[in-house]
Amino acid sequence: MIQYVLRRILTTIPTLFLISVATFLVVHLIPGSPALVLAGEAATPQVVANLTKVYGLNRPLVVQYGAWLWQVLQGNLGYSYQDHLPVLSLLLQKIPVTLELSVLAVLISLLIAIPTGILSALRRGSAIDLGATLVALAGVSIPTFVVGILLILWLAVLWPVLPPSGYVSPLRSLAGNLSHMLLPAITLGAALAALNMRLIRSSLIEILRSDFVRTAFAKGLPKARVVWHHAMKNAAIPVVTVAGLQLGTLLGGAVLTEQVFNIPGFGQLLINAIYSRDYPTLQGAVLFAALAVVVVNLVVDLLYALLDPRIRLRP
Fold it and tell me: Helix, strand, or coil here: 79?
């Protein structure tokens, strides 16, 4: 197991390097100069030129990338042009907010998808199955920002049950934090639940046709025990894969949802960095997003062996 983890970590190094190169080049292709944004539109060309020199933007791209990479290897992601703070400290401020939102969204999606998927699989072809399928298709088709706006309209304006936007730290008020995070978490969870429900349904239908399930029924085991302890344990493997990928994607920034609900998370930091042409923040944020996906994929692979003893992680 340890050898497998070490080998996976070593294989991610070239991936992260290529991502850093691609990110650096794409970021510098964004129209507009950070020096011009910082100086303002009314600034003279001399002021813009001085700022360009101060931040080293007049050096060749290869030199700029080499200096930035050397800082990253030392654990320094640079300083934000806009906030004048270390990028690492900015990420550490925003990541817990997005992490909380992402975990809540995945949990809500599973709470919706697991019972609905099981019921659809057991009642295949019934009105319940058809209704769940239509709801799942609608959940996949409707954009998340539309769902978010509708939820704000229904649950914050017409029926003022939850606050429409904003964020409260759980250290300040746990109840206030959950009330503010519930709407955005439901917005993201509804879209994820649609995909997870269809995946659970299809996986469970296939597992229920297996010989070991028929054997379990032939032994006289209760239906609930066969479904939960035999069928679902095997059907959960693809669900874990997709849920892990969804969590990694959300950690990379639920940009639209955070903008709709005005949540000061990772996605909002990314948007502000794009608007202000904040190169160090953009590069550090994208590098973190890539690292989050790599770590989540590694954790999912390790969970395979726990869910299915037939799977062995070989070095």
Answer: strand
- Break the chain into its structural domains and give their ranges: 2-73, 87-307
Which of 121, 132, 140 has its CA nearest to residue 236?
Answer: 121
CB atoms within 10 A of CB 18: 11
Which among 190, 188, 295, 185 has a CA at the least distance from the CA of 244?
Answer: 295
Give the whole-angstrom CA distance, residue 303 versus residue 308: 9
Residue 307 has pLDDT above 80, yes or no: no
pTM: 0.83
CA distance 313 to 315: 7
The tokens for 19 are 């991502």
Which superfamily does CATH assign the domain made up of 87-307 to? MetI-like (1.10.3720.10)
Q: Where are the beta strands (DSSP E) in 75-229?
A: none
Handedness of CA 92, 75, 48, 54 (dihedral sign): positive
